[in-house]
């Protein structure tokens, strides 16, 4: 089985996010970048499929200078190969541009299965995985929380919907976007970390991917962030005093009379 | 500039998703004298078509057994057929499980720009401007679409006024455009019977955290929620501990919420949790640690033991809300 995993690098969920000087992007100073948490579930699902059926896991990452670090971590977990997508022409791509670049790269690898995260916790777009599926002409299931293999080309997957869940039967090739709950991502072993240093990591540009540079990058972007603002400041409100019964009575009173939410 | 707008009329099992009417209301308010069309699909959905037409929109209905269950392959083909017929400037979806599943695929097929989870959306000259939260609620961004470019967007429920019944919309039957075989096919749907509102759309949320000590104590949260007609939420700590399902999780890697009232019980207020709920109208925190960070964002704070306070609060709310 040949499995592609798309790995995005994002600010850690613990990072304090401040608006940068240009007022339309974040200040990256001191921000720690990590593998997008949902991509960790995608990575784990890929490794489990490889363990079951044999084959190869190739990880793809598009982005800045430090993408290699994230991909190297995936190699340490057990991926066989990494592909970095980098070209000045890629800069400023919107979701569809990113999806075009990733789809071109993934297509070259001819995978039976593509795993992504359900959403990047940076811009909260939840776009790229599903777009890649469309561009590759593959079916997709998004926000997958359960995965059970029937055989090498069929699986049953579960996804959450409002107030319940859906079960689907999937025939490969397909794109699956992973949600929390799908599995428990493993940690890299010392041996894995040592071995990762010798595994292949290729860098590909627009020419290597056969991408028409006018379809990606800032020139082709159809959406643009023009402004970023911090959320409205919240200040600590009123501490309600008294014993439990007094506090509860006072709370219900203020919710009714002051906040008017009851 | 007048806009042509196409709205996806989401339904499940013949029931129209309520927030679709909000999206139609939004579409009517920004179309600037253009047009509002709705495309809906499923099996046995005649009454859905009529309910949609009552808003005055032109409705395109594909009613067929092959469309009984949602499927990105089938539904996107059907939406695309409507896109070809209507040639809209923008296609709008509810930011629901189904909308999120379909919209990026429609955008890729159309070669359109895509903005997800819009809190607001407006016409902006020859394009559109939207507001959305990023970094799980740590910043808010204004995103513009390029002048003249087509756009696909998902819109968060709860932020817009529902379209009123104006009547007069036409209902047009569509031919089925779905492919004959599907690579991913829904085989069953499990719906938990609940009379609680959906977390993402709720006006009131009562959420619990590790301060509850044990899974079975989550019933305290339910008791406080019931008189309020509130949705149930949770911190990641108790989701990870398996006390409650994943879809209860509020926060940066859970659901971002902005109800009128959010009551956090036994939740410390980690940065990832705050990111997902700090936009709430009124925040109440109940925690035995006066230093807990949740109090920094709370409008009303109660320092004390949840096991003592929650049952009293449940009783007091029953009186107040009955
Ligand atoms: C990648 C990543 C993503 C994350 N995403 C999320 C997310 O989306 N949402 C989220 O919530 N978390 C998220 N977290 C986890 C987050 O960092 C915290 O660990 C979590 O929110 C803590 O949950 P808690 O407040 O229930 O538990 P704790 O932090 O353990 O707090 C328990 C609180 O209960 C109080 N307490 C104890 N006993 C009582 C009592 N008897 N009465 C009243 N109060 C009592 C304590 O004083 C304490 O403040 C994420 C973490 C990571 C690393
Ligand atoms: N720059 C990127 N490089 C690799 N994978 C990406 C990139 N952007 C998005 N993805 C994949 O697409 C998923 C959804 O991302 P997004 O659409 O940005 O929310 C991520 O979880 C990744 O699996």
Short description:
The complex is a heterodimer of chains A (262) and B (322). Chain A has 262 residues and is α/β, with parallel strands linked by helices.
CATH level 1 name of the largest domain in chain B? Alpha Beta
User: Any low-confidence stretches of chain A, pLDDT <50, length ≥5?
Assistant: none
What ligands does this structure carry? flavin-adenine dinucleotide, adenosine monophosphate
Strand count, sense and closure of the main sheet of chain A?
9 strands, mixed
User: Level of helix content of chain A?
Assistant: 25-40%
CATH class of the largest domain in chain A: Alpha Beta
Integer average pLDDT of chain A? 96
Specify the CATH architecture of the largest domain in chain B. Answer: 3-Layer(aba) Sandwich
Describe the structure.
The complex is a heterodimer of chains A (262) and B (322). Chain A has 262 residues and is of the alpha/beta class. Chain A has two domains: 2-220, Rossmann fold (3-Layer(aba) Sandwich); 236-262, no CATH class. Chain A is built from seven helices and 13 strands. In chain A, strand 4 (56-62), helix 2 and strand 5 form a beta-alpha-beta unit. The longest helix of chain A is centred in the N-terminal third of the chain and has 17 residues, at 37-53. The radius of gyration of chain A is 22 Å and the shape is globular. Chain B is of the alpha/beta class and 322 residues long. Chain B folds into two domains: 5-173, Rossmann fold; 204-321, 3-Layer(aba) Sandwich (Rossmann fold). Chain B has eight helices and 17 strands. Chain B has helices spanning 19-30, 46-53, 72-86, 97-110, 219-228, 236-240, 271-277, 306-321, and strands at residues 4-8, 11-12, 15-16, 35-42, 58-63, 90-94, 113-124, 127-134, 139-145, 151-155, 171-173, 184-191, 204-208, 231-234, 261-265, 282-287, 300-303. In chain B, the strands form three sheets. Chain B has a nine-stranded mixed β-sheet with strand order 9-8-7-10-6-1-4-5-11, with helices on both faces. In chain B, helix 3 packs across helix 4. The termini of chain B are far apart. The mean pLDDT of chain B is 95. The chains are: A alpha/beta (262), B alpha/beta (322). At the A-B interface, helix 3, helix 4, strand 7, strand 8 and strand 9 of A face helix 3, helix 4, strand 7, strand 8 and strand 9 of B.
């Amino acid at each position: 089985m040949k499995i592609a995993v798309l790995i995005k690098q994002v600010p850690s969920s613990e990072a304090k996010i401040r608006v940068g000087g240009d007022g339309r992007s974040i200040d990256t100073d001191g921000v720690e970048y990590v593998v997008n948490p949902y991509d960790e579930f995608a990575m784990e699902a890929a490794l489990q499929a490889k363990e079951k059926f044999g084959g190869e896991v190739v990880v793809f990452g598009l982005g800045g200078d430090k993408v290699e670090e994230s991909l190297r971590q995936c190699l340490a977990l057990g991926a066989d190969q990494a592909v970095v997508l980098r070209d000045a022409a890629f800069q400023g791509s919107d979701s569809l541009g990113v999806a075009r670049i990733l789809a071109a790269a993934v297509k070259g690898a001819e995978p039976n299965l593509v795993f992504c995260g359900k959403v990047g916790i940076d811009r909260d777009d939840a776009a790229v995985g599903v777009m890649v599926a469309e561009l590759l002409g593959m079916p997709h299931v998004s926000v997958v929380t359960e995965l059970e293999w029937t055989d090498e080309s069929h699986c049953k997957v579960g996804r959450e919907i409002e107030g319940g869940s859906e079960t689907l039967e999937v025939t490969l090739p397909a794109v699956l976007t992973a949600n929390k709950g799908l599995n428990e991502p493993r940690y890299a072993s010392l041996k894995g970390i040592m071995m990762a240093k010798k595994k292949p990591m290729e860098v590909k540009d627009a020419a290597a991917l056969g991408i028409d540079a006018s379809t990606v990058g800032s020139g082709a972007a159809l959406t643009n962030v023009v402004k970023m603002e911090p959320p409205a400041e919240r200040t600590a409100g009123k501490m309600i005093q008294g014993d439990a019964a007094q506090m509860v009575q006072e709370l219900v009173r203020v919710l009714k009379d002051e906040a008017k939410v009851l | 500039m007048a806009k042509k707008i196409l709205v996806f009329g989401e339904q499940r099992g013949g029931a129209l998703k309520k927030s679709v009417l909000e999206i139609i209301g939004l579409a009517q308010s920004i179309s600037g004298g253009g047009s509002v069309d709705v495309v809906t699909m499923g099996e046995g959905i005649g009454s859905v078509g009529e309910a949609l037409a009552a808003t005055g929109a032109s409705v395109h209905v594909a009613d067929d057994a092959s469309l009984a269950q949602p499927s990105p392959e089938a539904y996107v083909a059907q939406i695309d057929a409507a896109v070809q017929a209507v040639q809209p400037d923008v296609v709008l979806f509810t930011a629901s499980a189904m909308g999120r599943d379909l919209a990026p695929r429609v955008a890729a097929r159309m070669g359109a720009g895509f903005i997800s989870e819009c809190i607001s959306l407006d016409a902006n000259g020859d394009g559109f401007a939207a507001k959305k939260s990023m970094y799980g609620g740590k910043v808010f961004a204004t995103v513009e679409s390029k002048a003249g470019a087509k756009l696909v967007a998902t819109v968060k429920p709860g932020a817009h006024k529902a379209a009123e019944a104006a009547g007069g919309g036409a209902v047009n039957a569509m031919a089925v455009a779905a492919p004959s075989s599907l690579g991913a096919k829904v085989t069953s749907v499990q719906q938990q019977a609940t009379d609680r509102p959906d977390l993402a759309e709720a006006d009131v949320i009562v959420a619990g955290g590790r301060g509850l000590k044990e899974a079975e104590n989550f019933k305290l949260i339910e008791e406080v929620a019931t008189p309020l007609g509130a949705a149930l939420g949770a911190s990641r700590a108790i989701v990870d501990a398996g006390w409650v399902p994943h879809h209860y999780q509020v926060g940066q890697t859970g659901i971002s919420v902005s109800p009128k009232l959010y009551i956090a019980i036994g939740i410390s207020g980690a940065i990832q949790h705050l990111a997902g709920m700090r936009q709430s109208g009124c925040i109440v925190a109940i925690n035995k640690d006066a230093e807990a960070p949740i109090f920094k964002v709370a409008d009303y704070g109660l320092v004390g033991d949840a096991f003592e306070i929650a049952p009293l609060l449940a009783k007091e709310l029953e009186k107040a809300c009955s």
